[in-house]
Amino acid sequence: MTPDQPIRVVMTKWGDRPHWEYDAVYLGSDQHGDWLGCPVGTFYRRPGMEFVAPFAGVVLVPAGGEAHLAAFNDEHAKAWTYVDMTTPPVWDGTTLRAVDLDLDVVKRQDGTVYLDDEDEFLEHQTTFGYPPEVVAMAERSAAQVLAAVRAGAAPYDGTADAWLVRLMRRT
């Protein structure tokens, strides 16, 4: 992929149920994975909800098949960091696909860090029939990401700042 290439992000819920979709641009890659940019004005849509973002953000598609997608936002968003636990994201041409597994690690602008949507995760294990290995993968990923965000370990150490700057320079 090349910088500024349009990318479509398609998230589903388990069982190929529609979830968030939005357009992004490819910014580049580093040792952490591929970085996508979502400028102010990005249109996000899922069943029952849509919005135009008043904030800019970058999304890290982790290297090595890790089971999450990490978003890092500017100061206009409620959360600085928002990490969705997912199946390992896969590229389908210029479309990025992943299944959202409910659990989210959130770092708010005030520095508060927490694991969100544990109730939804428990409910969907039964409702959607998550296999035991998927449950274990999501729990393992959430624990690792939560520890890394709390510790300020890379890439949750400000690494995303340079990618946000790169996004802002192109818009």
TrEMBL record:
Cell division recorded as keyword: no
Coiled-coil region(s): none
GO terms for MF: hydrolase activity
SUPFAM superfamilies xrefs: FomD-like
InterPro entries: DUF402, FomD-like_sf, Ntdp-like
Domain DUF402: 60-152
Protein keywords: Hydrolase
Pfam families recorded: DUF402
Superkingdom to which the source organism belongs: Bacteria
Name assigned to this protein: DUF402 domain-containing protein
Species the sequence originates in: Nocardioides immobilis
Lineage: Bacteria, Bacillati, Actinomycetota, Actinomycetes, Propionibacteriales
